[in-house]
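Rab-GAP TBC domain-containing protein
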Amino acid sequence: MARIEPGNVNGLRSAQSSKSLRGTRESLAFTEGESNSFGSDSELNGYTSDRQTDKYGFIGGAQKYSEQLAEDVPPEVLRQREVKWLDMLNNWDKWMAKRHKKLKLRCQKGVPPSLRGRAWLYLSGGKVKREQHKGKFEDLDAQAGDPKWVDVIERDLHRQFPFHEMFVARGGHGQQDLFRVLKAYTLHRPEEGYCQAQAPIAAVLLMHMPAEDAFWCLVQICEKYLPGYYSAGLEAIQLDGEILYALLKRVSPVAHRHLKKHKMEPILYMTEWFMCAFSRTLPWASVLRVWDMFLCEGVKIIFRVGLVLLKCMLGSQDKLKTCQGQYETMELLKTIDSRYMQEGFLVHEVIELPVSEQDIEKEHLAQLRRWKEARGELHCKSPPRMHGAKAIMAAEPPSRQDLRQNPTIIVQPSVETKKAGEVVWEEGKGRRKTEEEKLGKKGSSTASEVAKPSPEASEPSPLLKDTPLQQSNQSLSSTEQDTYL
């Protein structure tokens, strides 16, 4: 196995000095000249095109195949799924304890877009962490941060999905929030610091939720789902590479023999797949479906996706005719056939692949023994990984209060409005009833009309003028934030 030293891991692990940073920050497919979602600085800074975004927020053809391979769910089916997910989120502890299999099936079908951010927050355990550590993100956000990490993070911001409407502008709100989340994590885990592969993970989260929620989801992914992946030396990712290689022997012996013949170390082709949770590999519709399952079922989904792609690309002698060496094989794995990344095909294959949590843990112990025999003890002492939402919840049982959905739209009437209401109530007992009847007859009445008891009363605050959402039963955002775009 190829050795990977701290601070010089193909650009993924940022080095301590600025000199080494300049030499590593372009590598491991983070280069801007690749035919992926990255472009030149001129495109990033001076973007003035009128091209429209797709339904995911990507401008033009930035996220390849995002529209062509997306499977649209009929609106009536989507509405039904939203109702079911709202019920699950309102009774999360009961569903996790008694109906987890049904919840898993619904994640496999795909979380409704309007509720994906909230669902990911609950699945990852980020919601519980946020409630148990209220104010911590604000405290971390207010701190300056370690200069060595701040400098690296700032220089990485423009690389994260630069053709997504949220991150297209240098210094825009998306890049600002991304900086806040990544900087806060370096303060939360100073011994771990920052790894470049964390940036796309955080960016995907920010596309679906506010910065504080994204921070706690990132914490959970780094500590529970992929522990040790972003630590110096990247020992955990190397170990999982060997696990993937061993599992491939059972899933696709043909692919395994080919990689062994050409001495293709797993670290060469699976590092970005696993560390970025396929967010930089698959078309966007497939990314979202994979993440729905990943946050529900754990790292086995990442292993399964990797095994499916290797099997599809290298699993038969016909497909290997054009791969006569290591270079050709690497090129093939860099340009995976779009048929195999298509949402419906990939999700079906991932669900059906017979690789369980027990298989992964059994192979993990075997590879750990081999590692110790060859290299000694691991330098990184990572916590044991949790295999999905149920395991995370069982390890740290939350209280009912931790799971309660908190309203995000709270309207506080101004002092003047409160006083005016009190005066009206004292002057005429029938006036309040009249206002209530008026609201009942006029479903479209705004809060400002109700709050204004008489012409002489002071004007309500601007916030009250803009609150017709409070009267609407159609808004899925009425109880908690759903999206952040």
